[in-house]
Design a protein that fits this description.
The structure holds two protein chains of two kinds. Chain A has one helix and one strand. Chain A is low in regular secondary structure. Classes of the chains: A little secondary structure, B alpha/beta.
Chain lengths: ~45, ~450
């Protein structure tokens, strides 16, 4: 494409197929304790 | 839903439902920005869009054709219909994470402390080992098939309850195999009582440690004096540097708080990251009920957003520095199921006091209305658990049309409750800052990838 560069494809949608195991870290246990950011958590199945 | 924005001078489009991210040229940004509120792109570019822009019509048609191509590929204006809203509600949720408030006491008197300088307004206490043992038994019993169990030693100041910390780790390690569990310990400390023995133990046993420091000496010492009124910076910084140097590649964060009095946190982050050499840094805004003298409010929003811009510009060419809120894993982050489920407080995650009382999270401790039970008598109010399990992006009205909903899971329930008196109404300031940080984080990714200048 001439005008658009895709940095990231439909990773969110793809994750629906295999997600939901519940083994990953609770988001508040990371570094914040006052906000809620899940996007910087790691998936246990992709380490 | 599409969100277009410019951060670090870089025009970007986020396709909310698919997770796709596109770096745009200026003309494409100008076109897409005008139509981002549409359900889907029409066959041709609307005339009113064309005539409102200073571009040649043929060029706009070319842009439109590329946008349509992305839409056809499911990378723009993707539907949300692949998500089942039932995923968001954890029914009979296993408890798999504890915030273990081993000390309701503290040797610092931080001016913004949500825990009333450590005792949560309930009197200064240390958790006896017997209570911590019951808490470990509680989470083993309540965690069902979940293997990974997280226990964060919190307070107050957990190093004031060191004996309990060590015995709790030993006990959990002694029983984890027979129950097919894997305990992951973390600790959040102010560093005052760190010594070689404690550093060695933390670096051996704790998967992550969060080291509290508010940045520059004058800022830290104003925010975080000792009980005797002296500054803490000179005591804790050398200890943190030693602990981190001896920790190797293991996870840690130096974590600060910025306030209405000291909102220029970009300088504090850079001081900690470059002057002091800490590579993993996080800062959070002070929060509090309306009228709190140090909490960040709407009045400070513009200045605070400008600080994030300043920080992003500083960090974009320093990939060796990991600023917590600018780290977004676009490729292998958490699955969409986790992203729609909320923070887990009160369901997957609970806080336990020195008396063994159970609360939805550390920020509700001391509020009797939210007391869920006690580990000594085994009581556990599943109605409160169900209420919290029902807090997610589909039950919070403000999240419905928010482009950031899959990146924050609906925000902090305690923040919403403390400010709006409603668990389902997120704190506006927190939402605004979350959105700002995400824009910076995505722009940093785009520039580092070489796709943008």
């Amino acid at each position: 494409m001439k005008h658009i560069k895709t940095l990231n494809d439909a990773t969110l949608k793809k994750s629906a197929c295999s997600g939901g195991c519940g083994e990953c870290q609770t988001s508040c246990q990371s570094a914040c304790k006052t906000s809620c950011t899940v996007a910087n958590q790691q998936c246990e199945n992709q380490k | 839903m599409v969100h277009t924005f410019v951060a670090l001078g870089c025009p970007i489009a986020l396709d909310v439902n698919s997770g796709a991210v596109h770096v745009l040229d200026q003309m494409t940004y100008d076109v897409l920005h005008q139509v981002e509120g549409m359900e889907a792109l029409p066959e041709t570019c609307p005339e009113e869009v064309k005539t409102s822009l200073p571009y040649d019509g043929a060029e706009v048609d070319e842009v439109w054709s590329e946008l349509k191509e992305l839409q056809a590929a499911g990378l723009l204006f993707a539907k949300e219909d692949y998500i089942n809203p039932d995923w968001a509600v954890l029914k009979n949720a296993p408890v798999k994470a504890l915030c273990l408030n081993v000390a309701h006491d503290c040797n610092l008197r931080c001016k913004y402390c949500f825990a009333s300088t450590g005792d949560f307004g309930t009197g200064r206490k240390i958790m006896p080992f017997e209570t911590a043992k019951q808490a470990i038994d509680f989470v083993i019993e309540r965690s069902g098939k979940r293997r990974n169990i997280e226990v964060d030693f919190f307070g107050g100041e957990p190093l004031m309850a060191w004996d309990t910390v060590v015995k709790t780790v030993e006990y959990a390690r002694s029983v984890e195999k027979e129950h097919n569990k894997n305990f992951r310990f973390t600790i959040t400390t102010n560093g005052m009582l760190l010594n070689q023995e404690k550093m060695d133990y933390i670096n051996r046993e704790m998967k992550n440690c969060v080291l509290s420091l508010d940045g520059r000496k004058e800022v830290n010492d104003d925010h975080r004096p000792t009980a005797g009124g002296k500054g803490s910076y000179n005591v804790i910084v050398p200890k943190y540097q030693q602990l981190v140097a001896e920790r190797g590649e293991q996870e840690y964060y130096v974590r600060g708080t910025y306030t209405k009095k000291h909102p220029d946190f970009a300088a504090d982050v850079m001081h900690m990251a470059t002057d002091l050499g800490f590579r993993n840094v996080s800062v959070e805004p002070a929060t509090g009920k309306p009228g709190d003298p140090l909490a960040i409010t709407e009045a400070e929003l513009d200045a605070v957003k400008a600080e994030y811009d300043k920080l992003a510009a500083e960090l974009v060419d320093k990939p060796e520095i990991n600023f917590f809120h600018f780290f977004v894993d676009l490729q292998q982050g958490p699955c969409v199921v986790k992203r729609v489920r909320g923070c887990g407080a009160g369901s997957e995650y609970v806080a336990i006091t020195p008396e063994g009382d159970i609360y939805p999270c550390h920020q509700f401790v001391g509020n009797d209305k939210f007391k869920m039970g006690n580990v000594h008598d085994g009581s556990f109010d599943t109605k409160i658990s169900d209420t919290f399990a029902g807090l997610n992006i589909y039950t919070k009205p403000a999240c419905q049309n928010c482009w950031a909903k899959f990146y924050c899971s609906g925000g902090c329930a305690a923040g919403g409750y403390n400010i709006n008196g409603d668990l389902k109404e997120p704190a506006f300031v927190a939402c605004e800052l979350e959105r700002k940080r995400l824009e910076c984080a995505i722009a940093i990714k785009a520039i580092r990838s070489g796709m943008a200048d």
